[in-house]
Amino acid sequence: MMTVATDYYRSRVATPMALIPRVEPVVYARGSYAQALSAEQLRSYEENGFLVMHDVFDAAEVQRYKQELQRLLQLPELVGQPDTITEPGSDAIRSLFKVHERSELVRNLIQDPRLLQVARQILGSEVYLHQSRANFKPGFTGKAFYWHSDFETWHVEDGMPSMRALSCSVLLTDNNACNGSLMLVPGSHRYFVPCLGETPEQHHKQSLKKQEYGVPSQEHLTQLVDEGGLVTVEAKAGSVIFFDCNTMHGSANNISPWARSNLFMVFNSVDNALQSPKYGLEPRPDFLGYRGAITPIAG
Hints:
Blueprint: E1 20-21, H1 39-48, E2 50-53, H2 59-73, E3 84-86, E4 93-97, H3 99-102, H4 104-110, H5 113-123, E5 127-137, E6 145-148, H6 150-158, E7 165-171, E8 182-184, E9 191-192, H7 204-207, H8 218-228, E10 231-232, E11 240-244, E12 249-251, E13 260-269
Antiparallel strand pairs: 1-9, 2-11, 3-4, 4-5, 5-13, 6-12, 7-11, 7-13, 8-10, 8-12
């Protein structure tokens, strides 16, 4: 009789569960697969679950990416597309997915060794692109992204087996304490946070606007923050934030006059390809989690 292996990272449960300790590495192959970060940077990433690198891209490069995003936002074919996510209650674009398929400039950015080599070094393998998007948070009206671990969603709704992926955010505007910049909980990547509630069908259609399932309880979030603290990223345009797929993060509403925008990409190990989603869920669209033939990113 065939037995089905128990999922260690259970979530979307009916009754509260305790935090689950992570069982896999944060930095794979001891950071020896590629050379990009110093030993101190690797140690900081491993300990905190994220790394902020300042002045990676110069002002001219940032300006080119900003102009490219403005060009993309004017494309009439974006209207009404499932990968164009608008703000709750308005037609303002909140996130634009698969930007690398719409822009040669962004496609080249994904191959930039300043990003790619960091991903290879941390994940200890060749990598492929799990997801790309541009995030927009205009002044005065930009809405929050509630607390979540990406891996919880990717594990349950996309079937990502292991915590062997990372996110990379290229800042195209200055991020400060007032304009809804990224907040992270140091050390939270060392625990999987089981979330309550059965996942509705086609959940992504709502969650990309406002996530209500796959979010931590206030008790778990308080426990993580009491243990690790809370960091609001303040960095200039051209900086890059790398963070582990399981790091708890979110961002507040932007009620300042200063817009916040970034280019966002997720690198996944070629040894961590997606499997079937959990609990009989149908796979989400490819723009949220790539399921095609895996080709390592060249660069």
